[in-house]
Amino acid sequence: MNDQELARTANEVRKGVVTAVHAAKSGHPGGSLGAADILTYLYFEEMDVDPNDPRNPRRDRFVLSKGHCAPALYAVLAERGYFPKGELETLRHVGSRLQGHPNMNDLPGVDMSTGSLGQGISAAVGMAFGARQWGMGYRTYALLGDGECEEGEVWEAAMLAGNLGLDNLCVVVDHNGLQIDGPIEEVNSAMPIADKFRAFKFHVVEVADGHDFGQLRAAFAEARATKGKPTCIVAETVKGKGVSFMENQVGWHGKAPNDEQYEQAMAELAKEA
């Protein structure tokens, strides 16, 4: 896909996020909208995956370490063809495969059940190490939040990944500067995140605009070309990206739009199509 096609696809993913969270009357739209471009690039350009063969042992793996942003993962999986887009409206409903946090036992395309912050990157390190031990060529990607980087387990996993030199692992930090309780610098800032990952023997790529597909393309290419150490991409993003009244608003971390707000959000996204 070229950058324009990726942007259109990401816009459809954002529509899916808004649709799902509105139908559920709960969920996490802010971070999901902000991560839509990164996930779109991963699933439509970067990763070797096949929705018709979601358990292929040679597929690339993805772990949504910030598991509360499940609406974005579900929306991109639906857009990629893993399941019908209409199923997004069952988010968080009783009996739905689309639980509030991803469940690998229920939904094709989900490689790891996540939700407890910090644990996803640990699973990703294990997947990457397993690939090396088994002589398999798949790559593993993990998406973390900047607030999640306050968790000690993140750095335990990073320490091991760096010491093992897992160059088949790419960690992406969705750096929007906000977490559930407010700006990260007012809660318990892990900054400077880039320098911390460097200290843990990662190659680090800093992306000034995590919504720019040209910048994302260059960053993932650099990660793929890096040998002997894992890569961390720190991508600056806007929480709530694409919906004006949600952008950079911490209150939309975990709140669903009402009917009027849903109509406004979908109208704004329709203009971007």
Describe the structure.
The mean pLDDT is 97. This protein has one domain (3-272): 3-Layer(aba) Sandwich (Rossmann fold). It is globular. Helix 8 (213-225) links the parallel strand 6 (203-207) and strand 7 (231-236). Helix content is 43%, strand content 12%. By secondary structure, it is of the alpha/beta class.
| Number of separate helices | 9
- Structural class from helices and strands? alpha/beta
State the name of the first-level CATH class: Alpha Beta
Count the strands? 7
Number of domains: 1
> Distance between termini?
16 Å
Shape: globular
CATH topology: Rossmann fold
Task: Give me the Rg, rounded.
Answer: 17 Å
Kindly report the name of the CATH homologous superfamily.
Thiamin diphosphate (ThDP)-binding fold, Pyr/PP domains
Biggest sheet architecture? 5 strands, parallel
Give the fraction of residues assigned to helices: 40-55%
Strand order of the largest sheet: 1-2-3-7-6
**Whole-number average pLDDT?**
97
Which stretches of 5+ consecutive residues score pLDDT under 50? none
